[in-house]
Write a structure and sequence with these properties.
By secondary structure, this protein is α/β, with parallel strands linked by helices. Helices cover 37% and strands 21% of the residues.
Length: 370
């Protein structure tokens, strides 16, 4: 993140890369020594590359995580164990990180996906579908590996009963792999990480975000993957997590029924700046270091639910969209809720008519003007 002086100096240099420090000082009414200090800081933050101040053009958001082929099986009736059940099926593109990235791309945000894939038909399909919205130049393809897949069984109301994920290729998203992308990541305005990457890689990203003052959002993918999250989260701006994931992380038995507010307080003790605890369709809770108050939000309801798959990823993308628009925390959460609201009314994991205009209008309709 850049401070006020850094933003103003960078803006002048963008207009005239050959502007002198004296001219900058005169334009901004600050000492020339301050200008020199600010320019040194901009170079250290990889915003400039020396004379004539060649300006880096960073991608505002890098999403680091999984991508896969999604297969959905919709039961025609109640699930009967240990026998064949009639279903209708469909195949689409998914993965938590990829879904978030596509949402952001459809919302007119510049986004790059860091992930891994095989040299197979599955990745060819993912690439063809995703490339119009997301920069895939940093995806690493690996020989003798299979692109990830995810299969979900849904009840007749669209609620998930069972999910199976073949994410074995994600073991290659290591600390060393992250370090190969260090020069790109330090230029980001925001980093988004799903926990398909391992513990050491997550820690490396947290260190980058902390050292370079980059907004970092962490999105767990399931309770078992909570072991990929370090104990100390200083440097993490946001974590978006559900009750099951929280109980797994803190070692609670699922039958203990810990209060949501207690879980939020536990998260804040780890050093994370903001935590959003989701509790399905009932409520979500926001806790922040800068206030003692825990705020409860009620998601908007609709009778037109078609499929809840992808709603969490849409929520995360909506939040990031608000952050990138410099909205307040409350306004950003409204964008998040509105995007999830739109997604559950679609059969697509990422709504195929999603746009910034649709999200802006829906948010205004649901919550009033931002």
């Amino acid at each position: 993140m850049l401070n006020k002086n850094e933003q103003e100096v960078l803006a002048l240099i963008q207009k005239d890369p050959f502007i002198s420090q004296k001219e900058i000082a005169q334009a901004l009414h600050i000492p020339r020594s301050t200008v020199a200090s600010v320019i040194s800081s901009l170079i250290a933050k990889n915003q400039l590359q020396g004379r004539a101040y060649v300006i880096n053009a960073p991608t505002p958001t890098y999403v680091i995580g999984g991508m896969n082929i999604d297969r959905k099986f919709n039961l025609e009736g109640k699930l009967i164990p240990k026998t064949s059940n009639p279903v209708t099926s469909s195949t689409s593109i998914g993965g938590v990180g990829r879904n978030i990235a596509e949402n952001l791309g459809r919302l007119d945000q510049a986004v790059t996906l860091l992930s891994v894939a095989g040299y197979d038909n599955a990745y060819d399909i993912i690439k063809e579908y995703t490339a119009p919205y997301v920069n895939l130049s940093q995806v690493t393809q690996l020989l003798h590996e299979t692109t990830s897949s995810y299969s979900a069984v849904l009840d007749p109301h669209g609620e998930m009963l069972l999910a199976l994920a073949d994410m074995d290729i994600c073991r290659h998203m290591t600390k060393e792999w992250i370090n190969q992308h260090h020069s790109q990541l330090v230029q980001a305005e925001s980093l988004v990480v799903d926990l398909n990457i391992n513990l050491e890689a997550v820690q490396a990203i947290i260190d980058i975000a902390r050292h370079h003052d980059i907004n970092l959002v962490i999105v767990p993918v399931s309770a078992p993957k909570m072991t990929h999250l370090p104990d100390q989260l200083d440097g993490v701006n946001w974590i978006i997590v559900n009750r099951d994931e929280s109980e797994a992380y803190f070692g609670y038995e699922s039958s203990t029924h810990i209060k949501p507010t207690t879980l939020v307080q536990n998260w804040l003790k780890t050093g994370v700046k903001h935590v959003i605890l989701t509790c399905g369709k009932d409520a979500l809770y926001l806790g922040s270091h800068d206030t003692a108050e825990i705020t409860e939000f009620t998601p908007p309801t609709t009778s037109r639910i078609k499929d809840v798959t992808g709603a969490g990823d849409a929520f995360t993308a909506g939040l990031i969209y608000g952050i990138l628009q410099n909205c307040s925390t409350e306004q950003s959460i409204h964008y998040a809720l509105a995007n999830a609201y739109l997604t559950i009314q679609s059969t697509d994991t990422v709504r195929n008519d999603l746009s910034s205009t649709l999200l802006d209008n829906t948010t205004t309709t649901l919550f009033g003007g931002n």
